[in-house]
Specification:
mainly beta, seven-stranded antiparallel sheet, 1 helix
């Protein structure tokens, strides 16, 4: 599995649902379309005790003044932010076929 990011924050958005925010220094050199393509339509969220697959609703990527990428992935309303463990790792789902 390809690592996308480590979750540093999860919060609930009134309209969009749960949003995961994190960083991965290995992706800082990639462009927005490259990161978006890497994330794809589904992600695996892996914590110490659990592993779940979520559909990606939307992606936000911002670049800090230090040229570091902050990645936000909206996973909808099927899971609450309080149920997301900070430090969980988001992986790309490899589509078969």
């Amino acid at each position: 599995m390809d690592k996308i990011m480590t979750v540093s924050l999860a919060f609930d958005h009134k309209e969009e649902g749960t949003i995961l925010v994190g960083i991965n220094p290995e992706l800082d050199s990639l462009t927005y379309p490259e990161i978006e393509a890497m994330i794809g339509e589904r992600i695996v969220l892996k914590s110490d005790s659990d592993e779940t697959i979520h559909r990606v609703q939307s992606i936000q990527i911002s670049t800090s003044m230090a040229n570091k990428k902050n990645i936000g992935i909206c996973i909808g309303k099927n899971v609450a932010a309080k149920d997301i463990q900070v430090g969980s790792v988001v992986y790309r789902v490899k589509e078969s076929g």
